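Per your request, structure below.
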């Protein structure tokens, strides 16, 4: 009986130990998962509280009310987060940065040096990691937040921004590179001689789902592999070259890679096209691949099916057509590989195929509908889509103008450039001879025009201006007054963003993407 009780006790003890171990593992896994999840702070211009000030060749800091916090006496001033009072100041030759708060008190003095972490490959008016700094102790680097709290100890030989990946950092340990995030969590092991993001981009999450191309140095030279954004190794470092097909969106990862000078196509871990070609090029319009072997070209699908044989000396995509040529023999194929006879050398789809920009045998442009009925004869030197059924067109070397699909001409053809302004419903038409700029809505209604003009593009509006006039236009094409514009970008109209004369002893103080400049 006693032996039986002992056995039961041992079993219970073993079960308890297993339960504790499982609980610890679950807690650790959850903690690691939380550490690997990070948020990127978005800061609107109207939230800016601090600005870099420039005067007489030196830099300082001013707040949004116009108070000078740091006098202009430094060769460089960095404000990593314009909402937070952390100002990194330095002079050439000092060898150490000084960091100040909103009271101009020096902070973070316990470290050998504190530096901002620059973003690389990203277009932003705040080109730094917004919530972390790197610090140095005994030639090793660690991370602190902007309140001075230590995130990770100074154990790395190097820390810098990972190109295209805000929130992720390239770090070096024992001579090898890995990737950590701004929480200090390890994302990629420290096994590589180089790591770069694959540049995959989604509108909502930007480059966050971009994976990693990793590199090792071997006796035969550099060899590359691939790791997904969640840390899964998909390809070992066995390849001469790796390039992700970033135009294909979704869960699947397509990679064009070379091995021993021969190219193939890999989907995740599966080889779809064997490594026996001199080149592979992806065409996003038709979701097809141009394959090169022995100075001849053909077309494959993403599943590895040949739809145009590798028989042609010249092969290119002309919109929805595939143009193939050998000697004097010219053929046109559809995206399904069907040979066709056509009077157009190219059809480029617009508005999901509602319209096509056509190019004829003489290289002239026109417009056809979905059924290829001619809407605009091929008489223009160039046509580009603007919005809906509106286009810019270049006519007989006279210049650019605006037209619709019925052939109506909305302007004269005398503009040097006509462009859509990104992330707005605005069109800018400019004649560079007199610097005349005209602004149109997406429906081609003219809303403003000005000679000797320049255009400033802000987050929520554009400013058309010359020496005598300022015109403010919101992204939808509405004329707004200066106060409305400033309210959208600054705390109040009388802040530093309002072009103030004789402000704080300076002749002029004005807001730019990089600095507040003061000029005589």
């Amino acid at each position: 009986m006693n032996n039986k009780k002992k056995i039961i006790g041992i079993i219970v003890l073993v079960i308890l130990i297993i339960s504790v171990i499982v609980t610890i593992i679950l807690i650790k896994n959850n903690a690691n998962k939380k550490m690997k999840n990070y948020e990127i702070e978005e800061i609107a211009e109207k939230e800016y509280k601090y600005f870099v000030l420039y005067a007489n060749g030196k830099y300082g800091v001013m707040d949004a009310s116009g108070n000078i916090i740091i006098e202009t006496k430094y060769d460089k001033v960095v404000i990593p987060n314009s909402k937070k009072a952390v100002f990194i100041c330095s002079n050439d030759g000092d060898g150490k940065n000084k960091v100040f708060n909103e009271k101009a008190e020096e902070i973070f003095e316990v470290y050998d040096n504190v530096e901002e972490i620059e973003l690389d490959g990203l277009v932003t008016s705040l080109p730094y990691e917004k919530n972390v700094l790197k610090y140095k102790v005994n030639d090793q680097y660690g991370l602190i937040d902007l309140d001075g709290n230590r995130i990770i100890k100074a154990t790395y030989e190097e820390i810098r921004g990972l190109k295209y990946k805000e929130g992720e950092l390239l770090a070096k340990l024992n001579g090898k590179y890995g990737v950590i995030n701004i929480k200090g969590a390890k994302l990629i092991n420290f096994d590589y001689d180089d790591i770069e993001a694959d540049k995959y981009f989604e509108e909502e999450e930007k480059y966050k789902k971009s994976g990693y191309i990793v590199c090792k140095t071997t006796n035969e030279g550099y060899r590359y592999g691939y790791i997904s954004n969640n840390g899964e190794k998909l390809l070992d470092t066995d390849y001469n070259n790796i390039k992700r097909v970033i135009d294909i969106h979704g869960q699947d990862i397509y990679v064009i890679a070379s091995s021993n000078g021969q190219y193939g196509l890999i989907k995740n871990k599966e080889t779809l096209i064997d490594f026996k070609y001199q080149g592979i090029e992806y065409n996003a319009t038709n979701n097809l691949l141009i394959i090169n072997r022995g100075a001849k070209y053909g077309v494959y699908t993403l599943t590895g099916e040949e739809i145009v044989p590798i028989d042609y000396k010249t092969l290119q995509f002309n919109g929805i057509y595939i143009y193939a040529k050998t000697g004097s023999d010219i053929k046109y194929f559809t995206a399904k590989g069907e040979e066709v006879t056509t009077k157009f050398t190219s059809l480029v789809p617009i508005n999901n195929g509602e319209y096509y920009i056509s190019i004829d045998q003489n290289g002239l442009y026109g417009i056809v509908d979905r059924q290829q009925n001619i809407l605009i004869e091929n008489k223009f030197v160039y046509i580009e889509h603007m919005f809906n059924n509106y286009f810019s067109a270049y006519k007989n070397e006279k210049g650019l103008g605006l037209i619709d699909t019925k052939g109506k001409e909305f302007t004269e053809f005398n503009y040097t450039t006509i462009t859509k302004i990104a992330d707005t419903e605005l069109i800018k038409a400019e004649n560079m001879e007199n610097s005349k700029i005209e602004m149109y809505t997406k429906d081609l209604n003219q809303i403003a025009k000005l000679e000797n003009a320049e255009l400033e593009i802000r987050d929520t509006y554009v400013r058309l201006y010359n020496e005598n006039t300022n015109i403010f236009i919101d992204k939808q094409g509405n004329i707004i007054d200066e106060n409305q514009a400033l309210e959208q970008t600054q705390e109040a109209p009388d802040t530093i963003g309002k072009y103030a004369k004789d402000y704080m002893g300076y002749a002029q103080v004005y807001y730019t993407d990089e600095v507040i400049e003061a000029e005589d």
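DSSP finds two helices and 49 strands in the chain.

Regards,
D.
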